[in-house]
Amino acid sequence: MYPFYEASISDIRLIDKEPGHTAPHLHRAMEFVYVTKGSLELGMGRELYHMEEGDLGVVFPDMIHHYQVFSKEQGRAFYVIANPGVCGAFGEELLKYVPENPVLRKEKVPGEAVNAVMCLKGAEEPEPVAGQAYVQILLAKCIPLLRLMERSMQGSGDIVEQSVAYVSAHFREPLSLSSMALEIGVSRYVLSRVFSGVFHTNFNRYVNEIRLSYACDLLEYTKRSITEIYLDAGFESQRTFNRAFREVYRVTPREYRVRQREKLLGRKG
């Protein structure tokens, strides 16, 4: 699942996949993640929240979040990503507050919310009105169960938010630590410390993780060519893209696409 800061092309985006590591990012969409098999870790700011099968994670717009998987067991999760426009009357509340704990345990997830998730999961491309209705059911049933606090009390640190927001918005463009530091008004040294101290990686590796996550999504869910994908993801050449891809996924982009399509065909069969 790729990170993005600008609005998504579609109002509602549905992703059913094996969860994996996703670098810290944020976007202007509402995101639900429902674990259907195994477990995963939902990172919110600097906190990690463990999720098991049947748990539902609720990520408000513009919240820094990431995913990790520690278990060796093969897992699966279903993601619902909805632009603010389909959230109806909840839009203002989503921009003013954030949940103290973004995870609802299986026993606390309302039956109506599970039903809405399953209806969306069963629809490859939901009819717009029905899709919007299911998203608003999820919001109506889940928000009252979350303890909310004002965003101003979140305390994640402006430089951290600025860094994640900037990379999420510009990762498809040429990026350097120096140019980014200049753009957000901090020193190159301070910015480098954010990536090493908060994200436990360096700037170039972080940007590559964002770009690779985006590229994986295009490989899996579109028919676009490898050339189009690596250029759109912000890589300078296919050689650089292939090398970075193999270092992380141990296969070439083409092999990854074939493998993912075979898995999809196996599930449909």
Can you give me a brief rundown of this structure?
The protein contains 10 helices and 11 strands. The chain has helices spanning 91-96, 111-121, 128-142, 158-170, 177-184, 188-197, 203-221, 226-232, 238-249, 253-268; strands spanning 12-17, 22-25, 30-37, 39-44, 47-52, 56-59, 65-68, 76-82, 97-99, 103-104, 148-150.
What would your notes on this structure say?
It contains ten helices and eleven strands. Helices cover 43% and strands 20% of the residues. The radius of gyration is 18 Å and the shape is globular. By secondary structure, it is α+β, with helices and mostly antiparallel strands. The longest helix has 19 residues, at 203-221. The chain starts with 11 loop residues before the first strand and ends with a helix. The chain has helices spanning 91-96, 111-121, 128-142, 158-170, 177-184, 188-197, 203-221, 226-232, 238-249, 253-268, and strands spanning 12-17, 22-25, 30-37, 39-44, 47-52, 56-59, 65-68, 76-82, 97-99, 103-104, 148-150.
Total number of beta strands: 11
- CATH topology of the largest domain, anyone? Jelly Rolls
Helix content bin: 40-55%
Low-confidence segments, given as residue ranges, are 1-9
Mean pLDDT: 87
CATH architecture of the largest domain: Sandwich
State the shape: globular
Strand order, main sheet: write it out: 1-8-3-6-10
Task: Give the strand content.
Answer: 15-25%
Q: Using the CA coordinates, give the radius of gyration.
A: 18 Å
Q: Structural class, from helix and strand content?
A: alpha+beta
The CATH class of the largest domain, by name, is Mainly Beta
End-to-end C-alpha gap: 24 Å
CATH superfamily of the largest domain: Regulatory protein AraC
The profile of the biggest β sheet is: 5 strands, antiparallel
Total helical segments: 10
User: SSE string, helix = H, strand = E?
Assistant: EEEEEEEEHEEHHEHHHHHHH
Summed up, the domain count is: 2
